[in-house]
Design brief:
- By secondary structure, this protein is α+β, with helices and mostly antiparallel strands.
- Helices cover 16% and strands 27% of the residues.
- It contains 9 helices and 26 strands.
- Strands 6, 7, 8, 13, 14, 16, 17 and 22 form an 8-stranded mixed beta sheet that branches. Strands 4-3-2-1-5 form a 5-stranded antiparallel beta sheet. A 5-stranded mixed beta sheet has the order 9-26-25-20-21, with no helix packed on it.
- The longest helix is centred in the first third of the chain and has 16 residues.
- The termini are far apart.
């Protein structure tokens, strides 16, 4: 496709992407938009010009602080909206071309959390990550727990503390067990970590008791985002037995503002890892269910350049999104539009592809050297963590932009 709009080289937001988000300005209340190049297209203004006339979309759906009502229109309509925008941006005579008021520079607008999140589930689906953590904290010869290869391990997290890229987060306080001690102390975590993840946004409601199978699971997924699931490793080590993470996780997670649709990601489907032993029938699937998405993580100390510390890829996931959703609903658990489900830390086989500082520094034993000469085992106060991701195939590039957040001192 060739568009009349100027798109910088290596832009994540090409004509093949058209991701959805929520923006505002000092004079414009939050509303639905799409990203194209370094600009946004206001869908309220585009609707006013009549380009969606045949779809009968209410103004209130687009003049809205969240995407939930838009997503609720269903994929038949939301996909049509995306296709109409692509057509208009390729049509030299488009009504959009002579209406500058429908566009704004991304650098001049405020982006918001794209969906109202009712529930949040975090999985643990990278075999490389699970193996690394098992080697560090359990038995190197039996790193994976007996259930790991039989089901997508997950837990329900806190939705209220999920923030959009650009919002900062404070170092959490919690109980920590000092070395060679039998009693914990309450203190600021000294082992704050990032977790490189992808999140997917639920696009359809289900009823209590209803199950989703792997064949139709992607019909229930609207799109994906970048996701940094912040962790406090020292708090987690003390609290996680027997019920898993609590204060070590619920202090915050950061999410990118742009939701890239499953339709935009369709060209990048790939084969996933071989699953051995064979999974139970309800987790079996046909076709390509993994996605080739290049990922990177950078650490930027205050007033210093960033250093890329990890190069990973979403293709590594042992358990794919369809299996995660099938398992999540296999007991009849219902899901709702706007729910977020995160992949779990995405690590590859090579040390430079690990998706957390816990692995990159191997529990603090192997410090990472940054460009300014400073060393890191975990994230320090005023460090900014930046995650980026994109897919590329020939001339087609589809990206997520970035999710960034600075770690501030404990309150």
């Amino acid at each position: 496709m060739k568009t009349w709009i100027s798109i910088p080289n290596q832009s994540d937001f090409t004509i093949y992407n058209i991701p959805f988000g929520i923006y505002s300005t000092h004079s414009t209340k939050p509303r639905v938009c799409i990203a194209i190049g370094n600009q946004i297209l206001d869908l309220v203004a585009a609707r006013k010009l009549g380009i969606f006339k045949g779809l009968k979309i209410k103004k209130s759906v687009l003049k809205n602080a969240f995407l939930n009502d838009f997503i609720a229109l269903g994929k038949e309509k939301t996909t049509k909206v995306r296709e109409i925008i692509q057509k208009e941006l390729c049509d030299e005579n488009s009504i959009l071309r002579n209406n500058e008021k429908v566009f704004a520079l991304q650098s001049e607008v405020q982006m918001h959390l794209p969906v109202s999140i009712g529930d949040y589930t975090d999985f643990y689906s990278s075999i490389e990550h699970a193996t690394n953590v098992g080697m560090m904290f359990r038995d190197p010869d039996n790193a994976l727990l007996p259930n790991w290869k039989h089901l997508p391990v997950g837990y329900h997290g806190r939705a209220s503390s999920i923030i959009v890229s650009g919002e900062n987060i404070h170092r959490p306080m919690g109980q920590v067990l000092p070395p060679n001690s039998d009693s914990p102390v309450y203190k600021a975590s000294s082992r704050v970590d990032f977790e490189l993840e992808m999140g997917f946004i639920i696009g359809q409601n289900t009823n209590l008791g209803e199950k989703i199978n792997t064949a139709n699971a992607e019909n229930y997924i609207f799109g994906q985002v970048l996701f940094n699931d912040w962790s406090a490793r020292d708090i987690q080590k003390w609290e996680y037995v027997p019920l898993g993470p609590f204060l070590a996780k619920n202090f915050g997670s950061s999410m990118s503002p742009w939701v890239v649709t499953m339709e935009a990601l369709a060209p990048f489907k790939v084969q996933g890892p071989e699953q051995d032993p064979k999974v139970l029938p309800y987790l079996e699937y046909d076709g390509l269910k993994n996605y080739y998405i290049k990922l990177e993580v950078a650490i930027q100390p205050k007033d210093n350049p960033e250093t890329i510390v990890s190069h990973s890829n979403f293709k590594y996931m042992y358990w794919n999104m369809s299996q995660q959703l099938a398992h999540h609903t296999s007991n009849g658990c219902n899901i709702k539009i706007g729910d977020v489900m995160a992949s779990g830390t995405i690590s590859g086989k090579e040390p430079n592809s690990y998706g957390s500082m816990l692995e990159l520094s191997w529990g603090g034993q192997k410090p990472i050297t940054l460009k300014n000469g400073e060393k890191r085992t975990f994230i320090e106060d005023f460090d900014t963590v930046i995650m980026r991701g994109y897919s590329e195939k020939g001339a087609i590039r589809v990206g997520f932009g970035e999710v960034r957040s600075q770690l501030l001192p404990a309150l």
